[in-house]
Amino acid sequence: MILRPKERLSEQEINSGLNTILKEGLTTEAMTTLTGGTFLVAFALLLGANNFQIGLLASLPTLTNVFQLTSIWLIRKYNNRRAVSVICSILARVPLLLIGLLPFVFGKEAPVNLLLFFLFFFYLFGSIAGPSWNAWMKDLVPGEMLGVYFSKRGRYAQILNVILSIILAIAVDSIRKNYPQFELTTYSIMFALAGIIGLSGAWLLSTVPEPMSILDRDNILRMFVRPLKDLNFRKLLVFNSAWLFAVNIATPFFTVFMLKTLGLTLLYIVPLTILSQLSSIATIGLWGVFADRYSNKTIIAICAPLYLLCVIAWCFVGIYYSLVSNMVLLALIHMLSGASNAGINLALTNIGLKLAPSREAIIYLSVKNIITSVFSSLAPMIGGFLADYFTLRQLRIMAEWTGPTLQKSFRLLLLHEWNFLFLIGAVLTVVAIQLLPRVREEGEVHKSIVKRILRTSIRSNLRDFFIIDVLLNWQSSLNTLFKGKRVSNAPVQQGPDGPPLS
Q: Which residue ranges does UniProt annotate as crossing the membrane (predicted)?
């Protein structure tokens, strides 16, 4: 296996590499589907994990990002991003095979802490491989097609996720009902299979060519500080950190809430996840085109308020005991969150690549990942503590109608263990959104223009899809309402409010 970079790549080599990266993305997605999300949480709960351990489980992928400086050191020493990515990817996938052995060695008494131990190394080596892969892709993928290419890669991966998730959900739920003694064994086989698929993905990655790069030989700590002196990049770090903290304080517990509090099985939860994926698949191509044509920041400015609406809606799930009403609300939440997250994740990745200078891309991206990882890893652990704190606390708001022939009570709001956490996440999301206007992106177009063009684009295909207008403008209408009240109560000499979110 020859992993040395080349000074020049031919057009054929670039095209071949891009096609292989699409295939490698499918193996990575299959590995992630088998070992992450709902299945990982269900596996951990089956082993007896508590709220803090669930939070720690969710924090591991970002907690290990602090080791990304190791990636910079390795690349400076060997100047070979492909070797670092491939070798670390192999080392990351081996622990999955070991997790697959746990139930066979310990049986039903397999300790959760051992699962966390092996997953730590899985995420650790994945974090070291990440910066070298990102910098490698920045040089391999032509800049003018970053949005379109990675949206295509993401769309293929999500389609695979949907198909595989359906198969796994049916299989796991069937085994749980008919052969409960083999439920734990099923999860162990899933992890072992994920390890094998992941190793095949590492082999595919080894066949992709790498263009030669030149990395600054400056002191590594001075290199780390350099991106922090870039004012605009620092503003991006502040927004990204605040956003990830707000999102991760509640998101890891959505599945736990559905499993434990609502009592839903995987046959209900996985289709909801798939619905979110389908919504993401349907919109990610559009977000990619608009991000390339206008700006990534504009996409975030449109999608972030939509995601906020989803978090607020979680506070109302479970108010009534009707399964139908809860499922309808959950379906709407997953559809909207899938579309909004597709735009936000794509834009956050691309804006980091865009603001990073080419020769220092790995430094900038590593600093971004390391700093944001501190906040995104602390959030789930704090969320776990908060969930435990609110377990025995409850806030209930009722409306009561009393008449000669009818007395009826309506439950308007019920906040308890998880709903308190979701409300806190919503408040923090509002705070994070206010930090976005400070970031400046080249070629930035105001979101009102993009929304108008987006509506036109959608209407040309779905002329009756009138709800899009409501979804895109609900936050602006709310802001206008509050500003109107503020101005009416203010002295005449008071100046206008701050600049609009752009």
A: 30-48, 54-74, 86-106, 112-136, 156-175, 187-205, 236-259, 265-287, 299-321, 327-349, 361-386, 418-437
* Nearest C-alpha neighbor of 308 from the set 173, 440, 117, 436: 436
At position 499, the amino acid (one-letter code) is P
Do 249 and 387 form a contact (C-beta atoms < 8 A)?
no
Residues 462/404, Cβ–Cβ less than 8 Å = no
Q: How many residues does the chain have?
A: 502
Alpha-carbon span 480 to 474, nearest angstrom:
10
Helix axes 51-63, 112-140, angle to 10 degrees: 30
Identify whether 470 is part of a domain. no
| Block residue for tokens 């746990």 | 102
Any residues with CB less than 8 A from the CB of 276 and at least 6 apart, and which? 334, 335, 337, 338, 341
CA distance 183 to 107: 11
HEC-encoded secondary structure of 26-58: HHHHHHHHHHCHHHHHHHHHHCCCCHHHHHHHH
Question: How far apart are the C-alpha atoms of 284 and 278, rounded to whole Å?
Answer: 10
Give residue 256's Cα distance to chain centre.
Answer: 17
Q: Is the pTM here over 0.70, yes or no?
A: no
Q: Tokens standing for 497? A: 């409010």
Q: Tell me the C-alpha distance between 282 and 263, whole Å.
A: 30
Domain interval for residue 33 = 16-391
> Considering its fold, how many domains does the chain have in total?
1
Whether 453 maps to a domain, the answer reads: no
Element (H, E) at 411: strand 407-415
Q: What is the pLDDT of residues 435-457, one digit of tens each?
A: 888 887 765 545 454 455 445 54
**Chain segment 27-50, per-residue pLDDT in tens:** 999 999 998 888 888 888 888 888
Helix, strand, coil percentages (3-state) for the chain, rounded to 5, are: 80, 5, 20
Cα separation, 157 vs 136, whole angstroms: 20
Q: What is the CATH number of the domain that holds 114?
A: 1.20.1250.20
- Whether the CB-CB separation of 270 and 259 falls below 8 Å is answered with no
Measured CA to CA, the distance from residue 434 to residue 235 in angstroms comes to 12
Q: Among 124, 125, 63, which residue's Cα sits nearest to residue 88?
A: 125
Cβ atoms of 250 and 422 within 8 Å: the answer is yes
Q: Would 158 be classed as within a structural domain?
A: yes
Q: Taking the mean position of all CA atoms in its chain, how far away is CA 456?
A: 28
Residue 143 binned pLDDT confidence (cut-offs 50, 70, 90): confident
- Residue 225 belongs to a domain: yes
Q: How many CB atoms lie within 10 A of CB 235?
A: 17
- E-strand ranges in 203-344 read none
- Tracing tokens 């109107």 back to the chain, one arrives at 484
Name residue 396's amino acid: R
Run of H or E including 482: helix 467-488
